């Protein structure tokens, strides 16, 4: 099964496990019902940002969608024809609650990320090139060897304003409640 087929089947399975209609899934993710239907039928490939919305709305790790069970973790998710390529280094680890990705961002590319679920922490380390990060309302450049830790549950963005491809690693640490395919506990009413 290729990555697109896996993504489509995983989305449909997760939706059906919850007993949700496409309308309910659209409500939970902020992604249109039409787009979700196209993704489930493998007629459309979501952008990285759209897939993050879906993962957040379903409360599952991002890598659940891009790492088929039989894969060796070397498949890349490239929905934007090389603008942003995401390759799992270490896919979802339920014991340690993290995903680890190797990401390339083409010159001139911009990827805006909606907030992930509450409690998500991201660590970004630039391997080569320059990466501009939008965190806490401002852009800041990161050069090769530099890293940044930030709250992934706030809006953030990645931009490559340089002339060479930016290569960086992203480690996404999820709250302990996260388990592949299972919603986290709702803590909205806690003090």
Description:
The chain has 5 helices and 9 strands, in the order H-H-H-H-H-E-E-E-E-E-E-E-E-E. The protein has helices at 3-18, 22-29, 33-40, 48-58, 63-66, and strands spanning 84-93, 98-105, 110-113, 121-128, 130-135, 138-143, 147-151, 156-159, 166-173. Strand 5 (130-135) and strand 6 (138-143) form a beta hairpin. It starts with a helix and ends in an 18-residue tail after the last strand. The model is unreliable at 179-191 (pLDDT under 50).
Write down the secondary-structure element order: HHHHHEEEEEEEEE
Summed up, the helix count is: 5
Structural class designation: alpha+beta
- Please give the largest β-sheet: 5 strands, antiparallel
Question: If you compute it from the alpha carbons, what radius of gyration comes out, rounded to the nearest whole angstrom?
Answer: 16 Å
